[in-house]
Amino acid sequence: MDDGTLIQLNIGDPVRFGQEVQAGFTSGKNFFAAKHLIILPQITEAAIRTVVDQLIGRGFFEPVVQR
Known about the structure:
This protein has two helices and two strands; from the N terminus they run βαβα. With 67 residues, it is mainly α. A two-stranded parallel sheet has the order 1-2.
């Protein structure tokens, strides 16, 4: 981030995502959860930069205020 904050992202493509979800269900899990998950049709540096820039512009990474 501009202020130096680092955010770890989980980036994957739809095929790999489907495999991960199915593997979890097959092994007995009843849910799939991943922090900061981003699914892209094609994983390229340009695609990652574009989506992260778009998400920053939308405030996606802003801290959530707990009430």
